[in-house]
Amino acid sequence: MSTESLDCYVLPSVGLPLLLPVESVSEVVAKPVIEQLSSAPASWMKGHVNWRNQRLPVLSYAGLHDAKLKDKPADAKDALLVVLNPIPNAARKTYSGLFCHGEVKRISVEPNLEFVELPEKMDKRYVEAVVKIGETEFIIPKLVALGVAFSYF
After folding, report:
1. What is the mean pLDDT of the chain?
2. With a threshold of 0.85, does the pTM exceed it?
3. Contacts of 129-133 spanning 24+ positions with Cβ under 8 A
4. Between β-strands 6-11 and 105-109, what pairing exists: parallel, antiparallel or unpaired?
5. Residue 1 placed within a domain
């Protein structure tokens, strides 16, 4: 086990915020222009965005856990697109985007994390772990499972 701290981004999400290693994020785009899907088969499929001359699929992580969840609109003031680098070991080796609202923060995480129980309503297929830092709990998403979800676009 490593004794070094890990730089991470905290992404806002409904329920618990997400915790992603800095290396997994390519860019954070404010007020993204998302091309909505005309008939999305799932509510978590937000659409596509043009980023650096590439068409990226965009999904709502919170929507993966709760199909009834209604995100704020993409044109809201605090709308963000978090562009993920290609996910290692995923079938789809391309960039992809997570849609969220709020402020993305960068923190340094110490290796002695406290792991906590996954909330019952969360879909464990998309959660690697839930950790507690200070008084706040964070979801570490299962990146390979996200890669599978992105392959449906």
Report:
1. 88
2. yes
3. 130/16, 131/19, 133/107, 133/109
4. antiparallel
5. no
